[in-house]
Design a protein that fits this description.
16 helices; Enterococcus faecalis V583 fold; alpha+beta; 468 residues; v583 fold; globular; 2 domains; four-stranded antiparallel sheet
Amino acid sequence: MSAVPTGVVNVGADLFADAVEAQATSVTRVDWRPPMPRTEADLAAVAADPLRRDANNRALAAMLGVTAQLVDVVPAAEALGLAPGQFLHAGPPITWDRASGPLRGALMGGAALEGLVDDPEDAAALFESGNGVSLEPCHHHATVGPMAGVVTSSMWMFVLEDPATGRRTHCSLNEGLGKVLRYGAYSPDVLVRLRWMRDVLGPLLQRAVRTVRDGAGPVDVTGIVTQMLQMGDEAHNRNRAGTLMLLRDLSPAMVTSGLDAADVAESLRFIGGNDHFFLNLAMPACKLALDAARDIDGSTMVVAMARNGTDFGIQVAGTGDEWFTGPAQVADGLYLGDYGPDDANPDIGDSAITETAGIGGFAMATAPAIVRLVGGSVPDALATTRRMHEITLGENPRWTVPVLEFQGVPSGIDVTRVCRTGILPQINTGMAGRVAGVGQVGAGLVNPPAEIFPMALARLAERARARA
């Protein structure tokens, strides 16, 4: 007589499993989904590519092998060669006529900061005409920018370097939250803060960073990320521990800089009171790591996810600098004050580089308190990190999750796994007001548009077939 089964395995929809469990029978649930529509042939072509396995191993190893050090703070004119009138922005390429409200607001404020106009409102006509101004993505200049990501020539930039290769990446200084330029605000108080950052904070940080670099050695940004993940941060929307560790490393050199004591005190207050200050170091650290994996033929690993407030774009290791874009989505989350969904602009910013590297929304299990900012629950945060392992090539042994028995964060988003499972990368994000000048209206959770992954898969399949 055959044994009677004591449990049931349910694959896919939960309706059957719920009914069986109601009869007091144990059920093992398997979260299976069919591949994304019309991807079967491309998935087969890429799976048969003899370069894929080794290429992905190389891409993941290259990313995980990078160490990011803070080696300097300099104006964008020096670091990137930007002239007045040259503007960088977050996300894939875009023109003024398609730019979202917060991106337009940040560009208008940036034009006033550079003295191209006296009143930010007058800058709209300048960008409409295109005379003497240009727009390019930060990513095209080894740079990342949070939210609108606007960089102008006089803004001070963090400079990060991988000591093994000498490669560098850059990011502007963090203004804080609320009515700030990166959220599209350009009121007089926003410009006053930016001028203070240009005239006081930037030069002070430069002196402190160089003093530390030439003394004990550069600040180890990758090492700080390692520690902050053990201390309740996820390095995208929660950076409290990271900011305080950075302040610990730099404050002695700031105090002994010889600069005006009142300016030093105000700078210490500003950084200490801005929990997001370290975000602008975590982002270029992630870009530095991911740039090491670029241009590996046959690799299906995503090396950039970025949004400009209109489009969401990804780049893949095996497809060069090509962007695969779709419409940016509005985040689902919590709103400030009386703001609601109708006030929010679609997702914007280069800060999804953190998720691309395996932290941020991918590491929400390290920062369960993040749900109080972006919504959801603590079990949701844990489940998100577990789910992201299903679409990644491996994990990062340096960046680990204590509550998951120090498992490495999910690392190396794989286009084929996204298309095969239908699971989209999870991003936690701030929300900018859709109208220029408003600033921040909330924070929440968002996914890329699903169609961009089949687009990337099709290009990978085209290359694989050409090699066959």
